[in-house]
Design goal:
This protein is 43% helix and 12% strand. By secondary structure, it is an alpha+beta fold. The protein has a domain of 35 residues: Wheat Germ Agglutinin (Isolectin 2), domain 1, CATH 3.30.60.30. The longest helix has 22 residues. The protein starts with a helix and ends with a strand. One of its GO terms (molecular function) is serine-type endopeptidase inhibitor activity. Its main location: secreted. It holds the Pfam family Kazal_1.
């Protein structure tokens, strides 16, 4: 029974690490001409754990704050 629990913990840790590496990516900010963003609603979750209405608004936040915010997943946080 202890062996089963240990295997579960190890597989959970591996899955979490893999999920983080595979799903986190930089937004493609070069495709947007700011200051305006399209009004489409296609939410993304940033690595700052904020939900942005779309990738362009995330890019605006990056340019305003100078922080390196990645997209951790499509959809709200």
């Amino acid at each position: 029974m202890a062996l089963v629990a240990l295997q579960h913990v190890e597989s959970s840790q591996t899955r979490d690490q893999t999920y983080g590496e595979e799903s986190t990516y930089s937004p493609n900010c070069h495709q947007y001409s700011l200051p305006g963003c399209p009004r489409d609603f296609n939410p993304v979750c940033g690595s700052d754990l904020s939900t942005y209405p779309n990738e362009c608004t995330l890019c605006m936040k990056i340019r305003e704050d100078g922080r390196d915010i990645k997209i951790i997943r499509s959809g709200p946080c």
